[in-house]
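Bench notes, afternoon.
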Amino acid sequence: MIKILRAADFFGAPFVQQIDPKQSIYKSAFGGLITLLITSASLAYAIWVLYKWQNNQLSPKISNSMYVSDFSLLDLDYDVIKLYYWKIEENYIDPFESKILLPLVMYTTNFSFSELQVINRSNETSTDGTQYYLPKMSLAFQNISGVIYTTSEMYIQIVKCSQVYLKEDEKCASDELIEQFFSQPLNTIVLQVQQKQLNSLDGTVQNSLQEFYIQIEKSNCYTLNTFLQSNFYELQNSFLFGYPTYLEYINGAFIQSQTNTIEFCRQAYGNDVLGLIYIVMKGNQIKTIFEYPHAGDLLANIGSIVSVLFMIKHIIIIFNQYYLNKKIIKKLIQFYYPEFKNIIIRKNWRLKTVKVLLNHQELDMKEFKIFHKKVKEQMENKLSYLNLLYEMSRVYFIIRSFKQREELKKSHLIGIKLNLAQSKIIVDSNQNSDWTNRLQTTVSYLNDEDADLLSLSHIFKQHIQLQIPNEIYMENEFYENNKIS
């Protein structure tokens, strides 16, 4: 079971070999500066995107299509239709106010007509001060065999005044006033269709209107077939999870106009109709989907720019790889040539070597370049993993040349003993004792110094407890010949 769990672990950590005791990945100050700049730029862009999202400055994805609505969400709780007489001049006679003409409304319910009703005047006025007439909206719809039918429609009639439609204390205008009205030029009734639409930036409702003009003539009947169109909105505005919001508003109207004789309209509608407005919903609607940026879009937006910024990292990686290789080569050279650390190489502004000093003495430039090229190639070869394994195999053969196999096998049985209860073995505390005697006593015992005796860290120790005196060097010509002062 443990093996299965280990195999399923996605978070395994690889072993990373250290370059030196301080770092496993080579990092430079220049790379750190670029990292800070890129990180700062990325953070600033992320804050800017979130600010624009919070303030509704990010445009949504918008798609439009034709849609057959059942109008169940259609908002009619406001004055969709408004009528008023357009007074071109201040002294014009208002036919509604003077009871020359009457605005009447009639509804169809299940394809049967209701009685005509007078549209009452409201307190709301137009831009020129004329009061509006607001018919009550009454539209109904029914699904028959999968087809949406309008079962309740509206007919607005502009008719000559008749006492039948007036209250007891009201009466129609005189013939003289009627003649004076019809003698006015450009008698016009204005039909306003109030519209609503959503602001794509923040989803708020905006109001607008369309105006249609009905010319009033004594001998003609002006017919205006008005097909209202709605817009069905789907708002996908959840940040992470959630369902879309659905809204539907009237957003316009299409008209079919026709001029008939007054006799034609009298026969059709039974009144002296000078203007007729037929109002119905248009069958095909428009569906608009506002897909506002959500968490995934914001992260993708930020991530795309951050990815572009972090493309610079490849340049910095190449830069760091170059200097890492240069640093390791230099260190390797110093392992074999310790005096190389005392060499000072001076270059001009074009990075060309102009002078080389060793212990403040100038070296021959040509000779140094030949030496440096040769030793650099040697050290580069040592960085090869195969070369490392090869040299280790040669070391074994050298050891094998003066040690028997059985003795080498015993190396698997030995190690440094833990002797925590006692002090570390000090063979001879007398500093004046003979070195040879002490060496013979300690040579067969391993202690904690043997763990890193040949390690690189031994070079940086300021003090080595047991200094090998000069007489030991004299016993071995190799140490004497290669001693670095």
